[in-house]
Design brief:
The protein has helices at residues 25-35, 39-55, 60-64, 70-86, 95-99, 106-123, 126-153. α2 crosses α4 (70-86), α2 (39-55) packs across α6 and α6 runs antiparallel to α7 (126-153). The chain is built from 7 helices and no strands. The chain is mostly helical.
Length: 169
Amino acid sequence: MMQVLDTESAAMPAPVPPPVSSARPQMTADLMARTGLDEAMLERLVHGFYDRVRADALLGPVFAERIDDWGPHLERMVEFWSSVALMTGRYHGAPMPKHLPLPVAAEHFVRWLELFRLTAGEVCPPAGADWVIERAERIATSIHMNIETARDRDGRAAPPTPSEPERLS
């Protein structure tokens, strides 16, 4: 007698995410468990976010004037967000010098955060979205403050921002 396997009711094992290269493996594993984030999700977040940035009327031109080959930039941003969100230590760089000369004001950071929040909310589970959004807000505030400080120190007036919020959130 032939036995038929009931494949519909058999439990399929959950897919195992690829191993993550991390300088702090236990911390990374804990963050992944707590937030639901992983490397693949961060890659989707970064690519989706920058798709929106490139199409944005305010932010698109700032990036278009400076980035010809998006592949390396996106790869670097995935490494950056891996380090920021999962504490992997994959990013080795100094973002501030790249941002200081940019022709940006508070409105650019507000828009950047709007697009980031939107993308994170679509790509990440709620705990993961909250985690990366909080970090994005801190990063945007820090970069904006450093740009303004550098402009003041260099004797140039900061660009006018009539409706600048106290905190970039």
